[in-house]
Amino acid sequence: MDYDQARYSRDDQYEPLLAEKNATRVEIDEEDSPLPDELTRDAVELPDLSEPELARHYTRLSQMNWGVESGPYPLGSCTMKYNPSFTEDVAADPNAAVHPDRSARSVQGSLELLYDLQDYLARIGGMDAVTLQPPAGAAGEFAGILVAKAYHEANGNDRSEVVIPASAHGTNFASAAMAGYDVVELPSDEDGRVDVDALEAALSEDTAALMLTNPNTVGLFERDIVDIAEMVHDVGGLLYYDGANLNALLGRGRPGDMGFDIMHYNVHKTFATPHGGGGPGAGPVGVVEELAPYLPSPRVRERGGNYELFDPEESIGKVHGYQGNWLVLVKAYAYIARLGDEGLADSSAKAVLNANYLASQLDYEVPYEPFHHEFAATAGDRDAADVAKRMLDYGVHPPTTKWPEFVPEAMLTEPTEVENRDSLDDLAHAFNAAMADSDEELANAPSKTTARRIDQVSAAREPRLSWRALDADGE
């Protein structure tokens, strides 16, 4: 597929920012302001634009960008599936625009939705209770570890360690450390799975939990999961499920049935809510019955046909205001309700099928098999980052590169269930063509995108994250 990305520029600068377009200085009358002087300004500069100018500005920006609406977006371990627009329609319904301080009696429909979503997620994960409050996956992960900590403390167990595989997401290590635990890193075996012998050596009476993703980061199902769960429970620890790869199991396997005690759900990955660039998001947490009293509060329950909020006495308390990011939860509810049990299972099966079909079409080695929804190909003696940049010139988004680190020149690829065979073939062509290109072509890529090759070292050492930084530099 031939591809050239749009490029709007003048004097070697891209489409101007709104702050640079016809700014008008508006004087502010401070006489009646109740704010202290340090919080006020004499004037603000506001763009003075017509509606057509504004529409063209954002259209141009969209044409100079790339998203799942543009084409395949196979970032491994990210599940960049298409977010169906009907969920936006549901969230935009005026009935969803409820103030969080309204009485429970006046928002019974909203509470019923939250109650049902708790139930949906519990059944999907094989859990007994769910909180919807955490505002993102990482926040849910942290909340889940705090639940584990509260459980151990309530039972008089002063445990100090959390065991985490080396292939785990970085947030696992951060969550455990933030909760006050020492991290024991667990190596993978030669097959890419948990090294059971190393796990046995790592577990002790100091072990609070083992955090695990299943399938793991290279898409492998932990075939010893039942034995692993027994090993953790035998030392009094808890088994934590990172829901990053739940999309591979929907309708076909449940973490609770495998022996997991706690899990968080990444609704932006599994249930097609927007990834959001950092927010708003949602990271519900599910637990087995024994841990339910420690979940963040308030939660929703049904009594006598009415829905109400309640605060368990042993709860770790709030981790976010009100009921989390309400409209994100509405979108997740709509997605689950629309697909139903069969639809969710079908989406999972297609995600696994697509990953395996794509891998079969690549001229790359995939060292770890059999995989489920994602796989880690290796670029061999080529630089994976250069290959990825060259793939941009073929009109696709590249996979995650250089991770996990135990795969040399890794290209972690997750096409998700939304791609058809034609788009998978286009993606395979981009992979193979980029690998076949010369060293010079790779070193100068990308050449057909709006932004050409980025100086990554300067970007990392001298980040400019706001237009104000550009203004301060006189650029």
Could you tell me the strand content as a percent range?
A: 5-15%
**Main pleated-sheet profile:** 7 strands, mixed
**Lateral arrangement of strands in the main beta sheet:** 5-11-10-9-8-6-7
| CATH homologous superfamily heading of the domain at 86-338 | Type I PLP-dependent aspartate aminotransferase-like (Major domain)
Mean pLDDT metric:
94
What separation lies between the terminal Cα atoms?
37 Å
Regarding quaternary structure, what we see is single chain
CATH first level of the domain at 86-338: Alpha Beta
At CATH's second level, what is the architecture of the domain at 86-338?
A: 3-Layer(aba) Sandwich
Give me the count of strands: 16
Q: Compute the number of helices.
A: 15
> Which term fits the overall shape?
globular
How large, in whole angstroms, is the Cα Rg? 25 Å
Tell me the CATH topology of the domain at 86-338.
Aspartate Aminotransferase, domain 2
Structural class: alpha/beta
Helical content (DSSP H or I, runs of 4+):
25-40%
Uncertain stretches = none
